[in-house]
Every structure is written in C-alpha cells, then in structure tokens.
C-alpha cells in the first residue's frame, strides 16, 4: 500500500524513504509539520475521495490546504510532542478514477516522530547494527593437535552424541509426543538433551574469531593469552578446563592443523590457554589465528548418565510417586536451635517437622516457597534438625549454582559444627574462593575422595558436581537425605544427577525447595523447550502429579507439599499484583515495617520534574548491579529498576512462541517485580505491555491508585477501531490486504516509547 499507483504521486517534506517519513523533534511542546504533496501525473481524472490519520493519539492532528482543480493537494500533519519517545501514525489516502465502474485504491504513508533525551543520544549506537550471520558450513580436512589440560580435568564417561542422532530427528516424533513416564524416561531425555546440544553448538559459533593474535603469558611462558571480548559477561561462557581450537589464519592447504588449547585461567577480557609443545615451538608474536569455541560437554554427559541410572536404580516412586507406599508417621518435636522466627511461622515449622518425620517417603517432599518466604532458611533448618534427630543421617545439599551452594554453606555453619560440613567444588571454580576439596600440594581442586566424603555429616555441592560423587564410588543409600534448593531452576536431568546412583529409592528422602511460578532453567533449543526439557522436576510434579496438587477443599496434602505464605521482603503495594496473579492471594506481608516503608516519603518519588536530576547522579554509584532477570532470581534489593526492553510489536509473537522477554512470560514478570523490598521502578512501553493481560492488570492497578504519570495512552486508537473504520470505506479490502495494513501499522506502533510513572507509596513505574 505504500507505493505510488494509478498515476498518483505523493511526496513529503521531510522526504519519505520506503513509505515511511521519519524525523527527529529537538524540543518538546513545539509544533512540527509534515507536508504531503499529492500530484496526479496520470492521464485520467482522479478523485481524492478520503484521507485520514489512523492509529492516532493526541500528539498530532492534521488539516488540508485546498488548491485549484488540476494542480495538486497538500495535506499537513502537525506533531506536538509532550514526551520523549517514538510516536508513529499512519496516513491513509483513498482515490477513485473518474470512470464508470472504477475500483477505488489507497496509498499509505507511515509517519514516525522521535524525541530523545540527551542521555539517550549519548548512549545511542556509534555504528550501524550488523546482525550476525552464520557462515555456511564447509567441511575441512584437519589434523587435531591436543593441548595441555589443567590438572584433574579428564573424565571417563562415554560420548553420547552421535551423527545418527542429528540426522534422523524425524524418526523420533512419536517419542516426543508421548507423555513422560518411566518406560520412556531415559530415551526421551537423551533425545531432548541432544536437541539442546545441537542448538548450543549452533549458538556458540557466533563467538568464533578470525585473525586474532595471542601473546605469551609473562608469569608462565607455557601459556598463551587470547583476548576474548565479553568473556567476563559469559558471552561466550568459558570456564577453567574448557577447550578452544585454533588454526593459523594463513593455513589454507588441507589438511589444516588445528591446535586444542585448554583454559587455565579466565580473566576480565582474556583467557590463558595451554597448548601442545608443537604450537609453542612455532609460535611467534603477532602470529594470527582463527579461533573456534567449543562446548563443555561435561554437564550434558552427567545428565545423560543420570537418566540411565534413574532407570537402573528403579526410581519410579521418587520421580513418578503414587503415594501407595507412604505410611502415617507422628510429627516429631523439633530440637532447640531453630531460627527464632521459625517458631512463629507455622508453615516453615510444619515443613521442617514433615521432613524430619519423612512423611512423604519414598515420594519427595516439596517446599513451595513464593518470593521472600524463606525457602532457603527452611531448608537449612530442616538439614539442621535432621542431623540432630538422626545421628546416622548423611545429607547431600544441592543447588543449581555455586552462589546458592555458598549461601547454604554459610547459613548451615550458624548452628552446625563447620567440621561436619564438606563443600565440594568443581575444578572450574576460582581457586581464590572458599573451598574444602583444594589440595595445597597439587595447587588444584581434587575429585572428592570416597573415604573422606563419607565421613562428613553434610556435603554441599552443585547438582552437576554431585555427579563426581557417583563417579567417586559413593554407594547408593549412603545419603539418607538429598535436599535441592532452588529446584525450579534446573532441568530435570540436572536435578536427577544428585539423586540417581546416590539416593535409595525406598529408604531415602528427597526434598525439593523452589517456586514453579518463578523462572525455570535457561535453555536454547525451541524444540527442547516445546517438548518439556524446560520443565523442572519440581514443576512437573506440581503440574502433573495429583499428590502435589490442591484437593477439593483448596488445600495441599501437607505430607507432600508445604506452601510458605509469609513474605518477609516486600511492601504490600509491590506484592499485590503478583500475589493475586500467581499465589491465589494467599501471601501475607511480614516484611519489617521500617524497611519496607523506607521510600514511602521519598521526596523525588511524586515530583517528576526533580526525578531526572536524581537519576543523573546514579552513574557515580558503586553499589549498583546491572543484570538480567535470571541473574536476580533468588536475590533482593531495596530498590529495583526494571527495563522491560521489548518495545517492538514485531517480536511479540516470537516472545509468545518461545516464552522469552516480558510479554507472555509470566514467570519473568513475577521474578522482576518481586525482587524489590521498598521501591520498584519499571521502564517500558505501555501500548505494547497492555497487549499482555498480566501487564495490563499491573498497569491498570497503578493507574487506579494514582501512581501513573507520563504519556496518556488512553487516547491511542486501537486496532479494533481501525478495522471498524476500514469497513466503512469504499475500498473492499480482502483479509490479506487488511492484515498487511495492520502489520504495517504495528511496525510503526512498535517503536512508540512513552514516559509514565506509577506511584503506590513505594511503587514507581517509569516508561
């Protein structure tokens, strides 16, 4: 619709490009005029029967200047911007030839006005964006020369991924379509893990480097130092013990020699690599190399092994519990030493009692902990009480990340003898960290020794590193209890690493703590996500197993599930919408009153004019952390500022399909809003966000509570109104034309950024 036609030519000032008129506005609240000049250059008489602005808001209006017949028409559109951002509209012109039976036609021009703050200009791109393009794969005959790995890196597990698995994906559709059960447990997860690995291999290619130089490390001449921009931000993710492959850029004659270098140390923007003597002997300064990053398959290999061991050790009553073998047991009295407020928290107290009693065995006991309700403290106290109640108990405490494990360790040491706790680190861990399995004589982490490990009451490790306990020969049943904190953040095979081969299927007790309403594991493959790999064991049980669902009277069976209800983190205004949307309005506000109301009377909160100067000084702050929502899960801050990022309607469908971004991802919304204790500030596009019912509820709540300021999105013309107006026109638009017209509009609408603030005592929303 944007092309000139029928002899009609439409030009504009400013000049349009590709049917779109774009211009920048230097100052707010001053008019800016766009002129459309319409000329009939054809041989037939043409009537301009109709023209209008569509998808409008109060930022602009238009009027017509009439010229004598036979010359031209000029239409002016006037913009007056009151806010910074991108403001689109669509100009629609309808024409009809002056001939009997002629069919009307239309021409469309998109208009987009932009007003940027000085800070936005300063932070703008310095060069045109160049999307990454994956080069076509070309088989190359190579000779691989292995390098020197760090100590204690090798593993004897077999390689699972085969070329057949990649080539014959069509033959496994039946397996993917079947519900998960014990009969297909290992086969299905093998396949899903392969699908995820294939995507990981594709994704890591974007980090490959060409014509890079390396330098010899001054501290150790046997190591070469390679600069890797972004490595500190895990782009790419490189850990000690990983390997990279390099070849000389000048080598073009096949077979090409490829040298494998093992990572000995990761620094801010570089890695130190150990290569074979063959490369070191020919290495000279400024020699250029092509660099290929590789996957660390160790976690994947452990997951493959774990699902096989789950079948081998018959863990059906743990992974698919029926409840048939659950016996009625009395509730024990807890020993002294519990956290003070645990005694005043009935849900936490009951959870610890149930775990100590083993009320769910052999089925897992789930601690369903919404944000700020004290999941980790409940787990820590349960471990403490189990160790006191049963002198013969041996406990494995796991979490997906080292930081979560470190937190478990720190809190366990408050009421337990530190000599009873053994913290097992992987060899990729920074040697400067606190550790237990560090060998001073070898200057490296060592695999956990069976005899040493079995002496300790509590062993703390990540789920992946728990696989080393299986490899080290720890017998099945040695651990009477396995606790998994933040269990909702791990894929099921990763969680099973800490269970299969370690926990006795009949006598052991598995405890999973987490929140299925918060973010789950991070995956790359859309196929793996679609077919369930993104579902944690904790969430699968709560979704698909009746033992872990509410009964007819609206309560969980407390033998299997304890839902924590007291929120010790957030102000009630911050908690209100997540509580209603995700937790059936059951959460109770128990945050410290002084803490949660710290910013209720903040002088800058209701005064928009003074808000920007306050923010401008934030560049000097030292205690400011910037990261993704995933990085903040499990954490809290007095003040949280959230950028919703997505400002483009073009990507909303992709967000929905792949469950990414904020739109249509309720878990990301939930985590983002529930990190704040006192003040929450959200940055986003209200027009786009309101298309999602979750965000619409949140924004409407803030507007209702008079916590909204900025762009008035209530006057933005909706798509349904546009369709109604199109129906009244003379043009008979078919469905495809109508769809394309709406799509062209949304491409412009997608960039509408506006400014709004929502104030609910301690709740701020800025867009």
Automatic annotation (TrEMBL):
Group of enzyme by EC: hydrolase
DNA2/NAM7 helicase-like C-terminal domain mapped to chain residues: 622-685
Pfam families named in the record: AAA_11 (PF13086), AAA_12 (PF13087), MOV-10_beta-barrel (PF21634), Mov-10_helical (PF21635), MOV-10_Ig-like (PF21633)
Location in or out of the cell: Cytoplasm
Entries under CDD domains matching the protein: DEXXQc_Helz-like, SF1_C_Upf1
Record field: catalytic activity: ATP + H2O = ADP + phosphate + H(+)
Gene3D superfamilies: P-loop containing nucleotide triphosphate hydrolases
Molecular function in Gene Ontology: 5'-3' RNA helicase activity; ATP binding; hydrolase activity; RNA binding
Domain Helicase MOV-10 helical residues, every copy: 153-206
Primary location class: cytoplasm
EC number: 3.6.4.13
Family of this protein: Belongs to the DNA2/NAM7 helicase family. SDE3 subfamily.
Name of the protein in question: RNA helicase
Lineage: Eukaryota, Metazoa, Chordata, Craniata, Vertebrata
């Amino acid at each position: 619709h944007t092309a000139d036609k029928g002899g009609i030519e439409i030009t504009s000032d400013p000049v349009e490009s590709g049917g779109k008129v774009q211009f920048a506005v230097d100052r707010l609240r001053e008019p800016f005029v766009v002129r459309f000049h319409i000329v009939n250059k054809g041989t037939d008489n043409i009537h301009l029967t109709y023209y209008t602005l569509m998808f409008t808001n109060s930022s602009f209006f238009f009027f017509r200047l009439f010229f004598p017949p036979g010359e031209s028409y000029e239409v002016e559109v006037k913009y007056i911007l009151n806010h910074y951002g991108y403001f689109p509209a669509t100009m629609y012109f309808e024409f009809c030839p002056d001939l009997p039976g002629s069919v009307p036609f239309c021409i469309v021009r998109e208009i987009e006005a932009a007003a940027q703050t000085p800070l936005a200009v300063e932070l703008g791109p310095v060069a045109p964006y160049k999307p990454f393009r994956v080069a076509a794969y070309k088989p190359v005959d190579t000779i691989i020369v292995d390098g020197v790995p760090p100590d204690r890196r090798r593993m004897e597990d077999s390689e699972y991924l085969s070329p057949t698995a990649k080539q014959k994906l069509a033959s496994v559709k039946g397996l993917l379509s079947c519900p998960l059960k014990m009969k297909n447990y290992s086969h299905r997860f093998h396949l899903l893990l392969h699908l995820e690995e294939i995507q990981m291999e594709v994704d890591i290619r974007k980090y490959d480097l060409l014509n890079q130089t390396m330098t010899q490390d001054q501290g150790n001449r046997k190591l070469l130092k390679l600069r890797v921009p972004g490595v500190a931000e895990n782009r790419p993710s490189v850990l000690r013990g990983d390997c990279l492959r390099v070849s000389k850029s000048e080598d073009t004659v096949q077979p090409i020699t490829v040298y494998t270098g093992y990572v000995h140390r990761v620094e801010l923007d570089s890695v130190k690599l150990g290569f074979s003597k063959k490369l070191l002997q020919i290495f000279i300064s400024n020699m250029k190399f092509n660099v290929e990053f590789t996957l660390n398959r160790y976690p994947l290999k452990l997951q493959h092994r774990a699902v096989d061991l789950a079948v081998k050790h018959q863990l059906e009553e743990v992974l698919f519990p029926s409840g048939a073998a659950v016996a009625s047991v009395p509730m024990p009295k807890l020993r002294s030493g519990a956290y003070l407020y645990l005694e005043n928290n009935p849900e936490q107290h009951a959870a610890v009692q149930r775990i100590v009693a083993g009320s769910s065995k052999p089925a897992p006991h789930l601690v369903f902990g919404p944000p700020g309700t004290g999941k980790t403290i409940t787990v820590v106290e349960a471990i403490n009480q189990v160790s006191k109640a049963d002198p013969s108990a041996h406990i494995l405490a796991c979490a997906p990340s080292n930081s979560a494990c470190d937190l478990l360790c720190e809190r366990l040491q408050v009421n337990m003898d530190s000599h009873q706790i053994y913290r097992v680190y992987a060899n990729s861990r920074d040697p400067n960290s606190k550790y237990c399995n560090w060998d001073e004589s070898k200057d490296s982490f060592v695999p956990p020794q069976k005899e040493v490990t079995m002496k300790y009451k509590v062993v703390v490790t990540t789920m992946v590193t728990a696989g080393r306990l299986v490899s080290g020969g720890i017998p099945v049943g040695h651990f009477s209890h396995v606790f998994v904190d933040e269990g909702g953040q791990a894929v099921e095979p990763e969680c099973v690493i800490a269970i299969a081969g370690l926990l006795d299927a009949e006598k052991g007790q598995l405890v999973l703590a987490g929140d299925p309403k918060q973010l789950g594991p991070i995956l790359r493959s859309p196929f793996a996500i679609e077919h369930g790999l993104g579902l944690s064991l904790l969430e699968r049980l709560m979704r698909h197993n009746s033992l872990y669902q509410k009964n007819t009277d609206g309560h969980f069976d407390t033998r299997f599930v304890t839902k924590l209800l007291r929120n010790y983190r957030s102000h009630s205004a911050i908690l209100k919408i997540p509580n209603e949307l995700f937790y059936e309005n059951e959460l109770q506000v128990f945050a410290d009153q002084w803490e949660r109301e710290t910013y209720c009377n903040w002088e800058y909160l209701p005064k928009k004019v003074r808000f920007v100067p306050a923010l401008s000084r934030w560049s000097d702050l030292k205690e400011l952390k910037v990261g993704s929502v995933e990085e903040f899960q499990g954490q809290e801050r007095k003040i949280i500022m959230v950028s919703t990022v997505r400002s483009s309607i073009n990507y909303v469908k992709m967000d929905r399909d792949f469950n990414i971004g904020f739109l249509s991802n309720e878990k990301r919304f939930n985590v983002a809003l529930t990190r704040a204790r006192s003040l929450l500030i959200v940055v986003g596009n209200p027009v786009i966000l309101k298309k999602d019912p979750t965000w619409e509820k949140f924004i409407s709540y803030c507007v209702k509570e008079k916590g909204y300021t900025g762009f008035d999105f209530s006057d933005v013309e909706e798509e349904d109104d546009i369709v109604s107006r199109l129906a009244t026109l003379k043009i008979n638009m078919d469905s495809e034309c109508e769809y394309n017209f709406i799509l062209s509009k949304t491409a412009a609408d997608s960039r509408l950024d506006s400014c709004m603030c929502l104030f609910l005592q301690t709740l701020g929303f800025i867009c």
